[in-house]
Design goal:
This protein is an all-alpha fold and 320 residues long. Helix content is 73%, strand content 2%.
Length: 320
């Protein structure tokens, strides 16, 4: 009696197949704006608040993003170990909040070992590679990357523990809130700028096999809007909360704005690649006009870690 058939990935979508993203873009604009009008103030409030409620919101976003990510890879025939993924997704931001990067490394290692040991007990060994890799990639892609929102929000304490008091003095206790708002502003408005510039001027396709709706003109517009938005964000904080800006000068704001905008679009394309492979238009449907939470986290998943590491490098150069 033959055993169960092994699970194989579905064949890739032919290049000439119309992309799900190529549907009418303007039809959901009203719903998109309404959702943004609710979501953006809530996010800004949580960033300003910080503390346990901010941590709880980050955990919630991670769980929702991981849920949608695992649904994507299940469309490819894989069977992720959701319980291990969710447990790690909850624990990672908590460890980032109360611990340090060494503890995060230990947790990631323990998670991988646990996933592999659990897979040894499953009856269908044909799925082992897809199950282990898919589960752990979800932990890394959503859980670990988005946990950088914790260390960026608490940047004053984090940089002090890493580089000492002299580095901490360059950043006020609430500078992390400014850095989070700066990064979020660049990423969100770059996305909006690319959307509207692409609709108005888009002619040349940016990545037709991954996201046919995106254009080179839209990308350029997104970088311009995202960079200008970052500069305006710094100007705003110089007026309302000058202490939070610290040693983050205009040159840094300009450079960071450009890099965040570019990397944010790369994050958008990466998630589009995953959706394209799974043959779905959106990762979810929780946010009217915007799709799922993973569709909103795509740019921050790469942009927030970039902001954090750029700030560490910038601080190191200032102290050195």
């Amino acid at each position: 009696m033959s055993g169960p058939e092994p699970v194989h990935p579905l064949p890739p979508t032919p290049v000439d197949t119309p992309a799900p993203e190529a549907e009418k873009k303007g039809s959901d604009l009203g719903a998109r704006l309404l959702t943004a009008s609710v979501l953006i103030p809530a996010v800004l409030y949580l960033i300003n608040l910080g503390g346990p409620l901010y941590l709880a919101a980050v955990i919630g976003f991670i769980l929702l993003g991981m849920r949608e990510f695992y649904a994507l890879i299940e469309e490819k025939g894989a069977h992720p170990l959701r319980s291990w993924g969710y447990a790690a997704g909850v624990t990672l931001p908590i460890v980032a909040y109360v611990g340090n990067e060494y503890h995060v490394t230990m947790l990631m290692t323990a998670t991988l070992l646990g996933i592999m040991l659990t897979q040894l007990r499953r009856p269908r060994i044909e799925e082992a590679l897809a199950s282990i890799s898919g589960t752990f990639f979800g932990v890394f892609y959503v859980g670990w990357l988005f946990s950088h929102t914790i260390v960026l929000r608490n940047f004053h304490e984090v940089v002090g523990s890493k580089m000492g008091e002299a580095a901490a003095l360059l950043h006020s206790a609430e500078s992390g809130a400014y850095y989070m708002v700066f990064a979020t502003t660049c990423l969100v408005l770059c996305d909006a700028g690319a959307y509207f510039a692409g609709r108005r001027f888009g002619k040349r396709k940016l990545a037709p096999q991954i996201s046919p709706g995106k254009s080179v003109e839209g990308a350029i517009g997104g970088v311009i809007v995202g960079t200008i938005s970052g500069l305006l964000c710094r100007a705003f904080f110089l007026v309302v909360a000058p202490d939070t800006v610290g040693g983050f000068g205009w040159g840094a704001a300009l450079l960071f704005g450009v890099l965040l905008s570019i990397v944010g679009m790369v994050g958008d394309l990466v998630e589009s690649l995953l959706k394209r492979d799974a043959e779905v238009k959106d990762a979810g449907a929780l946010l009217p006009g915007m799709g799922g939470f993973l569709d909103r986290l795509d740019s921050p998943l790469l942009g927030i870690p970039l902001m954090y590491y750029l700030l560490l490098a910038h601080t190191y150069l200032q102290v050195g």
